[in-house]
Amino acid sequence: MFTSTALTFVFGLALSLTVVNSEQLFTCDFETDTCGFTNEERTTATWVRKDIELGGREGYVMTIEPNDATVQRAKMGKSYSQIQDRTPGCFSFDYYTFGNGTRYFSATQQRNVGKAGIWSFDDTEIISGWQKARISVTIDESTRFILYTMINRSLGEGVVAVDNVALEVNHC
Questions:
Q1: Where does the signal peptide begin and end (predicted)?
Q2: What Cα–Cα distance (Å) separates residue 157 from each residue in 128, 154, 164?
Q3: Is the pLDDT of residue 14 over 60?
Q4: Among 100-104, 106-110, 113-117, 123-127, which stretch is predicted with the lowest mean pLDDT?
Q5: Arithmetic mean of pLDDT, 65-83
């Protein structure tokens, strides 16, 4: 983490200002590859990197590959090991949802001490289009993030996509 302190005199008052700059540990727009995200086992669908136009945005994203399963569950994860001590962080990503079949979408953080759900929404909260998730987390060398989604095709079309994933040192 980078900090700087400036001392300024204004009308005879001394003010001390500390500026905290976030250090970006990881960023991925999926334009060149999957950035180390891998599909988890025991799912009925997979995340794939695809060049697509969604909600007015063009480019590569990670999205669910449609298949014949009625209920499609997909999980992908990414490990981070650059941080040795427990450090505050900000995990963020853009996500796109569309359709009545989209039932659930969540982010889980896994560390040596266990797993914890850090963000989620279900079918009652779905807003079609692109949204941004920003989640304050504590990170260390054992941190792994998992994105999980469920689409039920019997209820209609469902689309979930992820783009611009980032992890920064400092709370959101």
A1: 1-22
A2: 12, 8, 24
A3: no
A4: 123-127
A5: 84
DSSP labels, the chain: -EEEEEEEEETTEEEEEEEEEPEEEEEE-SSSS-TT-EEPSS-SSEEEEEEEEETTEEEEEEEEEP-S-SEEEEEEEEE--S--S-EEEEEEEEEEEESTTEEEEEEEEEETTEEEEEEEEETTS--SEEEEEEEEEEE-TT-EEEEEEEEEGGGS--EEEEEEEEEEES--
The average pLDDT across 156-162 equals: 93
Domain map (residue ranges) of the chain: 32-169
Domain 32-169 has CATH 2.60.120.200: yes
- In angstroms, the CA 159 to CA 30 distance is 18
Averaged pLDDT of the chain: 84
Q: What are phi and psi of 154, to 5 degrees?
A: -70, -15
